[in-house]
Amino acid sequence: MFLLVYILRVVFLFSALILNSFFNDGVKADYISKAQKNIDILKYHLKLDLNIEQKNINGEVRITAHKLFSEQNLLELNFYGNMKVKKVDSDSNELKFHHIKNILSIDISDIPKDTIELSIFYTGTPKRSGFDGFVFGEINNIPLIYNLSEPTYAPSWFPCDDDPEDKALLEFEITNDSSFVSVSNGRLIGVSNIGSKRTYHWNSNYPISTYLIAVYSSRYTLIKDSYQTISGKILPLEFYVLPNHVEAAKKDFAEHKDMLEAFENLFGEYAFVEDKYGVAEFLWNFGAMENQTITGIGYNFISGKNFARDILAHELAHHWWGNAVGPKTWKDIWLNEGFASYSEALYLEYKFGKSSLQSTMNSKFSENFRGSLYNPTNLFSETVYDKGAWVLHMLRNEIGDSNFFGVLKNYFEKFKYGNASTEDFKEVCESVSSTELDKFFDDWIYNDKGIIKCEYNFLNRKEKNLFTLKQIGDLFDDFHFNLDVEIVYADGSKEMKTFRIEKNFSSFELNPSKKIKEVIPDPDGKLLALFFKEGEQQ
């Protein structure tokens, strides 16, 4: 998700307290019950009939699930209590159920099989939740229905095991007025008309987390294109936009092919080639949402002037980081957002060179990141996005480019279509780089130790020249890192040296035959750090 965290830098709309309560509502340690953990959902077959006038949905979800324990007699699903469950059945036999608060409990004791199938019939007006939930909206007198379910708001509109780790296949039939185009994940496999209604039938060939399941329904115009992947497969590109945005969208979305090329070369082949990659316009004002194979982008970001490049790169990158490789729990969300944020910079580096990488990372720099990356207090904070990107940038400096990009490709291939934890990522890093990274992960990911702050000096002496460095961090002064130093000599020549810093105070001998004019620590901006010349700290 490309988020209003970027807008917050300028306008400071909310306090941290408000952000925390608004964005993290519902993400509790016991959100997933024991009964849910004993069931593996294999497939959702969703059917939604949308009623625009009443802002109501009539729904049916057919669930195929596997009991992890044969004696499991209860299926528990997350489903908001304001929605009405009309009936639950299996093989035409009605099942007993209880719908209390936000949990739907279904008695499956009469189903002897380990693999079960049941259908839930329900109705109601979805409660607006989190960023949006499920919305019956309108723009310029054009109705637009959409959802934004991250992190835990899919149950506001359909019964599900709302655990990001429980991925399942998806089939989705969306019915609306025949003047509407209804869009979802996967590939369109059929369109049918009954009276004044039209049903769009979508099928996903790959497992999906519930928070990434999408509904977009409006009077869209479809812009079609295609991209040839690195293995020669043809990937459909589908862009669903409002009629007045067609020409602007063609310009803004044209760069997707360059982005796909970059990410495939950096990370591996696009993981959903048998489905599509698509973008649909929706009414969220604060950015975009990476719903699997069909990103939603706020209508106000389509300009025809390429203002949305970073957003589009970010959401496409999620199809490697977050969608193909999902988070094991929401504690690991930096593996989604930090990775997608750094991918913005990697794309610009791939296309324009190192200077674009450096300027992008400079724009993400802050000395005021708060909280740890792992298990953050606020799932969608600047810390998760921008510090996450910086930690990956520093990891690259720690293990070197060859190892770093080897890590990304190995990590993607190993966990593709599944889920990974921060420890899983660490193990891949250590395996590929043959480097022990306990301290790096402890300092930068599992704890909040601030940023690197150092005081430095250089001394010209007859017998030897010295470069000194002292860590002076407010919270911590024992970071270990590789430090590039550019040395400018009095004769105009320059030299680059790399020093390993593993102490609070370090001293290094420099070329004794030349007088030093200046030293520049970290000239290429590889570290989340501030350097002050001795005696000049502000």
UniProtKB/TrEMBL annotation:
Occurrences of domain Aminopeptidase N-like N-terminal (ranges): 43-212
GO biological process: proteolysis
Catalytic activity: Release of an N-terminal amino acid, Xaa-|-Yaa- from a peptide, amide or arylamide. Xaa is preferably Ala, but may be most amino acids including Pro (slow action). When a terminal hydrophobic residue is followed by a prolyl residue, the two may be released as an intact Xaa-Pro dipeptide
UniProt GO MF annotations: alanyl aminopeptidase activity; metallopeptidase activity; zinc ion binding
Record keywords, A-Z: Cytoplasm, Hydrolase, Membrane, Metal-binding, Metalloprotease, Protease, Transmembrane, Transmembrane helix, Zinc
GO cellular component, one term: cytoplasm
Cofactor(s) listed: Zn(2+)
Residue span, Peptidase M1 membrane alanine aminopeptidase domain: 256-444
Subcellular location: Cytoplasm
Binding note for cofactor: Binds 1 zinc ion per subunit.
Matches recorded under Gene3D superfamilies: Neutral Protease Domain 2 (1.10.390.10), tricorn interacting facor f3 domain (2.60.40.1730)
Protein name, entry field: Aminopeptidase N
Species assigned in the record: Ignavibacterium album
